[in-house]
Amino acid sequence: MPKIKVIRAQIEGGKASPSPPLGPAIQQVGLDVAKVVEDINKATEQYKGLTVGVSIIVDLDTMSYEIDVKLPTTTSLLLNAVGSEEPSGDPANKKIGDLSLEKVIEIALIKKKDLTAKTLEKAVKTILGSAATIGLTVEGKDPKEVSKEIDSGAYKDIFDKYRDKWDSS
C-alpha cells in the first residue's frame, strides 16, 4: 500500500510561487519545489485572475505526484467576468454588471464537469440562476427572462456556435 501525502493550497491561477506556505510544504516531502510550482502554474494557467484550489497528491514511495485542480466557483467566475469584487447583496434592486450570453456560455463550458446538466442550454440556465442571485443582468435583461427566451429558441444560433465545445468536453 503506497504512502500518500496530500498538499492542499488556494492559489491564483497561473501564479503559484515557491514562497510559504506552498514551497516549504512541497520541500518537506522531498519534491523539487521549482518543478512542482511550474507544473501547478501550467495546470492552472486558464484560471488567471481566479482563485482555485489545488491538491498535490504525492506517492511518498515513488516520489511521483499528481496535481488536482478544483474549478473556481460559478460566483467567482461571474464576478470576475464583470470585474466586481462581491455580489450585490440586493440583487432585485441593485445590479452590479451585465454579461453577454456568450460569456455565460463560456462559464458554463468551464464549469461543465461540476454541473449535472445534460445539455448546453440547461447548463447555461444553471449559470443564469447564479447570475440572478448575485445581481447580474444578461444581454441587459433579468437572467430569468433570458432563461425563458432560451426555452423559446431565441438564441439557437449562439448555442449552435458552442455546441461542439460542449459535446467534445
Describe the protein.
It is a single chain. The protein is α+β, with helices and mostly antiparallel strands. The protein has 2 domains: 4-70, Ribosomal protein L11, N-terminal domain; 74-168, Arc Repressor Mutant, subunit A (Orthogonal Bundle). 44% of the residues lie in helices and 18% in strands. The chain has 7 helices and 5 strands; from the N terminus they run βααββαβααβαα. The strands form 2 sheets. It has a 3-stranded antiparallel β-sheet with strand order 1-2-3, with helices on one face. α4 runs parallel beside α7. The longest helix is centred in the C-terminal third of the chain and has 15 residues, at 120-134. It is elongated. The protein starts with a strand and ends with a helix. The model has no long low-confidence stretch (mean pLDDT 92).
> What percentage of amino acids are in beta strands?
15-25%
Tell me how many strands there are.
5
CATH topology (fold) name of the largest domain:
Arc Repressor Mutant, subunit A
Radius of gyration: 19 Å
Structural class: alpha+beta
Which word captures the global form? elongated
Measured between the Cα atoms of the first and last residue, the distance is: 34 Å
Number of domain units:
2
- Mean of residue pLDDT values: 92
* CATH homologous superfamily designation of the largest domain: Ribosomal protein L11/L12, C-terminal domain
In short:
By secondary structure, the protein is α+β, with helices and mostly antiparallel strands.
